[in-house]
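Example 3.2
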Amino acid sequence: MMKYINSILLIIFGMALAQCSEDEPVTYPRPDWSPVAEDFANGVPDWTPAQESAQSAPGWAIDLTGNDAAPSWSDPDKNVYPSSMTAVLCLTDALNYFAADGDQMAAFIGDECHGVAQAINSNGRKLFFIQVKASSSESGNVEFRYYSSRWGRIYKSPASDVKYVINKIYGTADNPEYPNFEQSGKYPCIAQAYVNIDYNSLPFTYSADDEFSVFVDGDCRSVNAAASSNGTYRLTLYGIKAGEELKFKYYSAEQKRIYTCEQSFVMPEAGGVIGSNEVPEKLTFVPDGSMTAYVALTAPITTWADNAADVVAAFAGGQCIGRGELTADNTYKLVMNGTVSDGTDIDVKYYSSRLGYVFTAASLVKFANGTIAGSAANPKKLAFNLTDKHPLKMKAYIRLNGNLAMLASSGDVMAAFVGSECRGIAQVVSNANHESVYELSINGSLTDSEYVKIRFYSTQTKRLYESTTGFNFAEGKEYGALNTPVTMEFAEE
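Structure, written as tokens:
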């Protein structure tokens, strides 16, 4: 019997303990609330593109080298060849540029030399006089041959161009003939180009040590003349055939870097011209090995855009490789330096000066040197990931009410929440009425309609409280004011 009585007493005692536990309030440690991480910037970012290593002056030069030995041409016996015709010849600019004292010229009929030229200077140019001797019955064609001592190469004009005629005058000192020697050379397609470089628009200062030339697949194909007073260059182009893709390149001695022309050209037909002295082709340049992308902001970012103060830059592996240049409203041209390998993912970052915030379009393009992504007319859209991004701000001024106000201490903490996300921690400030007011700077998203509630922790009660009401987030607005804060009611969580 006693055994049963003890069991009943134990049950009653346990129920009493349980009742006491239920009546005792739950307490919490001080919460470690902190706003979700944001990309606010502390002033305008110092995004400076990484530069490639300095390059030595390339010393660009066309290579016309041949392996012909210097000829030993000699005049024929005048007694054997009593008849003659006279030729006065001149080198084209393409060959005259490389003319030297050791050069030779002669006239041939078939494989036999029928006259060796005498060279004289007349009015600043070199003329070649040839007495072409032949028999009285000769009716063949005359082929002119020119030996370039600088290049070790013998050039031949088309024999079909000139018929041998006794006493014929082929060219004069005032109006010499220009044999087509180039057709037998390394580059038979010779043309001209007139181009203009606006040095004020380039990222370097002109220097007399700069170099400028034209290339086909890395092969130097030009000799440039000095620029005229208006910045126009006349260049002789050396091509194998018409239609070859031409690349204009410029070496800046100041920057110690090579730049490539953004415009595209092809080799004209022999004798053709790119541009003209009156209307030269205008050239712009970007760093050699770089990539260009045209990018544009989109809604809702454009609502806060300030083109004069915003900044756009390209990044690879966290390293800045290019900074944008504004080309149109909300559109930027990004020239990315070739400091990364092809195939590297490029992120584009945008600093909004009005929001003081940095947005990122991750892996917008893959780096590919020498290419262009998008265009000025059709730029790539900057699709920023706005998830968990809250660049907007509003203020709230809260005053505690009732017992919580009486129990307030310096260890208390108040925070603003949207759902489960902390969007701001309060600071205790005093107003003109000497009241302690909780001031909150609250972050909000760009697109969503958000409802804000306030949570509070009391160090005196060690309990958590939540406001019984909330308010809608309103960018740039204030909920309450410092001298007229909102008195909020809180309920224990």
